[in-house]
Structure formats: structure tokens, C-alpha cells
């Protein structure tokens, strides 16, 4: 009889590990669905604008609206809901996305669609800020890194393929069909999570005052503002890329989604390069990819009439665009090693601030100079971001050198 517990213990441990791995995979799929809900709109703008009889610029403000809500709601909502049991929280978020995507699919005018976008925007940063942490806890210390990487794979996949998938599905089923597909996926993931995810212990509440302490460091604030500038550059052009492909490059609407799919696929190279280089020189890596981004954007307009040249230019743009996602996240987190979770949440808010501003500036440039101007405006802002990253790097090196000199001077 004494051998029975010895036999059951490993089995129980294996079952727990299997359950944690299954939950992590489901969280990765949930991350894909949730983050795709934000970025899918970009690929649907031309079709949506035609159907609702509004301009592409007006439709583009739905991207701005979503990003502004994420930016403002992220830190306070994440702090206030940090004590909620994670399974219950994730199920509530997924059901909220199911309902809001269904409402979006049935929207008859701009304002109904706007409300259907505001509601999920409130929940997105809460999920984004807690999913990786939960996966790490479920996996245990030995597998925590792999679990977090798996969840972020879902987020990266949404950033890379959410827009082109939305365009392809939109061309096949219509933009309403794309939202119905998201509603169905959200519901299915909620069912899987209910079945597979164990309940977790609630975490301690993180107060807003505690979050604010991180903002006392000028270097950290500079890094956050740099993220705003970088994402403004990225989304001044990226928000209207589908429109740019149709109107400037002359790509048939039915083919735009496949071009954007290639844009995302090539971007995987940038994701790998950015993650590889950012650890050693985060600011220099940011500056370098901003310059590559500027070159790719400008070349896309210049080579729009030549298929091969357009493909190469979009490849350069895609590599830099995708690289800057992990580069900015890791750079900001490295700027606050004592509070990396909070830093990551604030960077998500900063990124969404840049997304909103980029969509706004891109829309204004279309009204003023035509759709081809969005790439030029984005390229100009990317150069500004590269200069800012270099200036911050030099300032930090100067400060470190002064601190080192002061320390040497004080030594007896």
C-alpha cells in the first residue's frame, strides 16, 4: 500500500503540467483573437468605408478611438482588477469580446460600430497585462520562460497577420463576416478556457500611486515617449497600407490581403532580429530599425509602379515594422528593471497612444496631400524617432560617465 502514493504523485504532477501547457496554448490563441480584434480594423477600412458610406479617413478614426481607450484605460484598469481570480477575469474578457464583435458585425452606422469598438478596448490591456504572468505561474519556474514566449507568440501573430487575415476574410465574407468570425472564435476560446484552465490564486492589488513611482525616472519617461514616437511613425503609414496598395500601387482589392500577408510573413525576420539585438543595445537597435522603417516607407511610394521593387520595399518596411514591436517592449522594460511588469503595461499604453496619433496624422495627410503621403509622413517621423533614440542614448552614457567619475573622485 505504501507504494501507491509514490506511483500517483508523478502522475498527478504530469497531469498538472499537461493542464498548464494546455492552458498556455489556449491563452496564446486567446491573445491572438483579442489582439487581432484591435488590428483587424486596419485591413477592413476600405470595404467598411464603402459599405457605411463614410470616408476612409473617418473610418480610420475607429483605429484611433480603440488605441486611445487602450492607452488611457490600461494602467488604471489593470491595477484595479489585479486582485480578480484570473480564470474568471479571462472568461469575462472573452465573453465581452464575443458580444462586442457580434455588435460590430451588425452595426448599421459609424456610431454603433464606435461603441462596439470602445467596449473591447477597455478589456484588451487588462488581458494583455496579465496573460503572460498567469501562464508563467501555471507552468512553474522551470517552464515559465517558454510559457511566456508561447503567449507572446499569439500576440505577435496577431500583430503580423491580424490585418492581412482580416482583409482576406473581409474580401471573402465581407467586413461583417470578419467580425462574426472573431465573435465565434472568442466564444470557442472561452469554452476551451472554461474546460481546461484551473482556478488560480488572486494576486495582490497594485495601486495607482505605486505605478506612478516609476514615472519619476527621467530616463524611463524618455523611453516611454520614444515608444509613442516610434508607434506614431509606424501607424501613420500602416493604418492606411491597404488603401495605399489599392490607390497608389494599383493592387486589385481581392489581392491586397495576400500582399499584406506577405508583409507580415517577411516581418517574422524582423521579429527575430529585433529580439536578438535589443538585449545588448536597446536604444541603438531602436534607432537602426527606425531608419530602416523610414527607408522602406519612402521606397514603397517611389517604387509603387514596379511590382518587384514594390515587393522589396514592402519587405524592408515589414521587417522594420515588426522588429520594433518587441524592441520597444523590451527597451522600456529594461529601463525599469525594478518594475518590469508595470513598465510593460505602460509601454502598451504608450504604443497605443502612438497608434492613435499615427492614424490621426495619416488621415490628416490623406486629406491634405493624398493617400501616398502617409508613407512619407511616417518616414519623416521615423527619422525623428531615430534621432531621439540616439540623443537619449548619448545622454544616458554621459550621465553614467559623470556618475562613474564622481565615484572615482570620492574614493580615498
Descriptive labels:
single chain; 412 residues; mainly alpha; Growth Hormone, Chain: A; 2 domains; 14 helices; globular
Give the gist of this structure.
This is MFS transporter. This protein has 412 residues and is mainly alpha-helical. The protein has 14 helices and no strands.
Largest sheet: none
In the CATH scheme, the class of the largest domain would be Mainly Alpha
Total number of domains? 2
Instruction: Give the overall form.
Output: globular
Number of strands: 0
CATH topology (level 3) name of the largest domain: Growth Hormone, Chain: A
Q: What's the helix count?
A: 14
Radius of gyration: 22 Å
CATH homologous superfamily grouping of the largest domain: MFS general substrate transporter like domains
Order of helical and strand elements:
HHHHHHHHHHHHHH
- Mean pLDDT equals 82
What is the annotated CATH architecture of the largest domain?
Up-down Bundle
Helix content: over 70%
- Which residues sit in consecutive blocks of at least 5 with pLDDT less than 50? 1-15
Portion in strands: under 5%
Ends distance: 70 Å
Give the helix/strand class: mainly alpha
Question: Can you lay out the helices and strands and say which pair or pack?
Answer:
Layout: H1 3-52, H2 56-80, H3 86-106, H4 110-139, H5 144-173, H6 175-196, H7 208-213, H8 218-238, H9 241-247, H10 253-277, H11 282-302, H12 307-334, H13 340-369, H14 373-410
Structure description:
- About 85% of the residues lie in helices and about 0% in strands.
- The protein has 14 helices and no strands.
- It has two domains: about 15-205, MFS general substrate transporter like domains (Growth Hormone, Chain: A, Up-down Bundle); about 205-410, Growth Hormone, Chain: A, CATH 1.20.1250.
- α1 packs parallel to α5, α1 runs antiparallel to α6 (about 175-195) and α3 (about 85-105) packs antiparallel against α6 (about 175-195).
- It is globular, with a radius of gyration of 22 Å.
- The chain is mostly helical and about 400 residues long.
- It has helices spanning about 5-50, 55-80, 85-105, 110-140, 145-175, 175-195, 210-215, 220-240, 240-245, 255-275, 280-300, 305-335, 340-370, 375-410.
